[in-house]
Prior knowledge:
Among the domains are: 44-110; 217-490, Rossmann fold. Helices cover 35% and strands 24% of the residues. It has helices at residues 44-60, 70-84, 88-93, 95-106, 113-117, 155-168, 217-222, 228-239, 254-262, 307-315, 331-340, 354-362, 430-436, 438-447, 451-470, 476-490, and strands spanning 11-19, 22-29, 32-38, 121-126, 134-137, 146-148, 179-183, 189-193, 204-208, 243-248, 271-275, 287-291, 321-324, 344-350, 376-386, 393-406, 409-419, 424-426. Helix 1 (44-60) packs across helix 4. Mean pLDDT is 90; it is low at 1-5 and 497-501.
Amino acid sequence: MVSGKFLGKDYRKFLEYNVGEATITILEYKGKGYYMVQEPKLESDAQETYNILIDYLYKSLKPLYTEKDPIGYIEGVLEEVAEELGVKEKYEKYYDILHYYILRDLIGYGKIDVPMKDPRVEELAVEGPGIPVAIVHRDVSEYPWLDTNIYFNSEEELRAYVQKLALRSGKHISTAYPILETRLPEGHRAALTLSKEVSGRGSSFVIRKFPEQPLTITHLLTLNTLSPLEAAYLWLIVEAQGLIFIIGAMASGKTTLLQSLTTLIPPDSRVITVEDTPELRLPHEHWDPLYTRRSYNPAEKWMSIDLHTLVKFAWRRRAEYIIVGEVRGEEVQVLVQASASGHGGLTTLHADTVDSMMVRLMSPPLNVKHSFLTLIWCIAVMKRLRDIRTHRIIRRLTSIYELEVEGNRIKPIEIFSWNPQLDKHLPENPYDVYEKSFRLKTLAKRYGISDEEVIVELQTRKEFLEKLVKEDIFDYDNVALRLFEFYSIKRHGDVFERDKS
């Protein structure tokens, strides 16, 4: 069932599924997309009992973050509290529904608990009281945002909720400093504002969820985000410890592509990731994640640890690969210099085109020297587009470039391109890729092998990835396992195995 105003015949249902005890219905009504949540219903007697119990628990429970098993702790005191408050009979009668809402509101995320638990929801946003919570859904690309039937009814309610989110992350937000970027305990990234100090419609928040199961390279191949041949080409660059930049606008899929490429790193490698907020997840045993730390007190600014500091620190920690979630400042100089010293590197950068990327790199605050740009092995350009035929939002790797030096000029060479009319990634033949790519020719010289052997390696990896898709290997752990097996088989005599000397 869906909300009353959608009971007419003019709505179109996309999906219906369960998240725990709640039912999710995704539909279109008058050209707009909706994410409707139907939770178990609290009848009047159950609602009254809930109000009595929750009011008492809010005032009397010790902080739940001190408990190793907060659910067990609450369940252990509920029956005793119900008897003490004289509502034990009603508590036992409505046990299931009371249990659901008490745990939702005390341990979970309250009103937004269902979308927070829904693995298909990627982001949530609230712009103010009385405005529907909006979400980004992984499986519904027709609409960039879906409105929900969840509201915060007043500024007082929303302000209290924002303060609760800050407290949950171990931070503080107040009118003295009414904005906060923080990480929730599950790794979700939250950007909060309090009252109308800086946000005109009142308290607000945006939560970007940390995916339990990241999209894998096989997911991206199935979605036609990139082609198997493009993936094989990038795989060779990754294994050869080249420096790859992934560029694009906001929400174009840069981090998703970065995540999928990290699984292609040889499994015995020591890999360091550097991020503001945990978004990357690697299957490697010797993965060493580093995160920035921000101090909001001007007197304690020295306590902040930024990306630049961490990338320099990573260089000293004997990493074979250094991955920076996104470069925005002088940390990019250290990353490029690390590439010159033999480290593999991957990162993302906000830029629409290769030309705008190079302008950004050579301008403050990044300040990369012109001569260092040649250390970038390739640039993958991601775009978020609306398909005018289907009106679906799609993400495509529209180009892959290599940078070639011509005297004092650096010339971008397009190795792959995307044809929007055919929705195809070109070229489709490994011979054509090798003909364009001077980086692959460099690899042939480095390993002392023939042109034909590099082309065969491209084709082999392309077919391996196609086989994973054909066998429906999409789960993150299973994809990682098959990639590890691939390396295990090729370990002896593999011409692309890295020099350990």
